[in-house]
């Protein structure tokens, strides 16, 4: 698992997907830059989301609110008071960790033990193996599950009551050690606010304290009535947005999974009070379908329904994805009630109500939100696509089998040799295709090497111009996943590629 994750990180660097920020200065922790291919993949994921959420839904519109917001926004939203993580310092190593993440990691290790037991039993019993029954009856597994349940419940309860001494006691009882040094010499657990502060204004006396937004959602809430009035949308309707968010994350050791500067893709769906259960269920299913449409494998997703709810929610679930380090949250679906709009009414003194003509009454709408991290989605797609294949002749190839619609480069065009007019024809093909797709030219090394390079880069098609092209205007097109080659007319290329890569 660890090895696979290391491969993902080094592949992302080697093929120009993700670099550490400010690498020449030894980097900045939990901050990353998207390189030439990464920026394309990220943009394609964003567009794929935008198309599904905004373009395909008559009643959802998209906005682009500023990162800076009036500081009262964050008092109203609860972030100033409650956007905290419990922190614990290790006296020996001087390292700092999120206490809840340490406890969750501990439970994940037990979960891995359960998986092992299941695997062993499945092998032993073969076809007659009944997983559900095994999970319910095997005493060791049942004990493991109970341990996980009691641990997580106790942690949730103490965090809710802000009983940090109990969180610390739990860490000690479970004998959790520093993941880097193995030491167990912890100091007290403290609350730590995750928002980044900054100042607006030139002189020290007049400067206004601002925060970099920790979520994009509030930009939607404060614009709710402006958008509703100018779009004349009727409830139910949604407002979507993508954009940067900032959190001073403490545990930041999982590459782009947990960053300090990241991008969110959020949609707030405004509904009539009392209808939140239906909409919540519906958005859970709609969002899962969106994920399935990318073909990363249904077995890699699962829902995690929350028992411990944030201060604003009456129901919440995560869509978890199987990352190289296990199942983790990829997207959240939250039934946020009228919490945010009511709070903004209270703090701003402005009415944020919707007049329902059918019912002939005004109310503060309820909200169901879908919130996904773009960078996390990037990691899901990228890590799932990276494969090491053994071919029939025993050789291996590295292939980044990205969904074609998301691939940064759709086709690479090669002249078989660097002479006889083949490079010029290849260039002409590029000049035609580049109006519709991102395409590249490559003439270096033997064609086999060029194929391998494009496979590892995630390019779905390779097009080779050879001497027959001079005779009949045909080229060879090779498919990344099957490695099958066909001979096609140059004029047919555009439609052929389009069929596979169109959103
Ligand atoms: P986590 O429990 O992993 O910290 P969260 O529950 O705080 O996440 P939300 O506040 O619900 O996350 O944010 C919605 C989405 O934004 C998450 O599902 C995740 O995909 C993404 N996200 C949140 N924090 C980060 C981060 N530090 N880096 C990258 N993506 C993030």
UniProtKB/TrEMBL annotation:
Name the keywords, alphabetized: Aminoacyl-tRNA synthetase, ATP-binding, Cytoplasm, Ligase, Nucleotide-binding, Protein biosynthesis
Q: What class of enzyme is it?
A: ligase
Annotated binding of ATP, by residue: 247-249, 257-262, 329-330, 373-376
The listed locations are: Cytoplasm
Q: Does the keyword Aminoacyl-tRNA synthetase apply?
A: yes
Domain of life from the UniProt record: Bacteria
Among SUPFAM superfamilies, the record links this protein to:
Class II aaRS ABD-related, Class II aaRS and biotin synthetases
Q: Which reaction does it catalyse?
A: tRNA(Gly) + glycine + ATP = glycyl-tRNA(Gly) + AMP + diphosphate
An example Pfam family from this entry, by short name, is: HGTP_anticodon
Binding-site residues, substrate: 98, 215, 262-266, 369-373
Q: Name one molecular function that GO assigns to this entry.
A: glycine-tRNA ligase activity
Domain annotation Aminoacyl-transfer RNA synthetases class-II family profile: ranges:
174-415
Q: What is its main location?
A: cytoplasm
> So what EC number does this one have?
6.1.1.14
* PROSITE patterns per UniProt: AA_TRNA_LIGASE_II
- So what family is this one in? Belongs to the class-II aminoacyl-tRNA synthetase family.
Which HAMAP family is this protein grouped with? Gly_tRNA_synth_B
Please explain the role this protein plays, according to its UniProt record.
Answer: Catalyzes the attachment of glycine to tRNA(Gly).
Q: Which NCBIfam families match?
A: glyS_dimeric, PRK04173.1
Subunit annotation = Homodimer.
The name on file for this protein is Glycine--tRNA ligase
What lineage is this protein's organism placed in? Bacteria, Pseudomonadati, Bacteroidota, Flavobacteriia, Flavobacteriales
Supply the gene name. glyQS
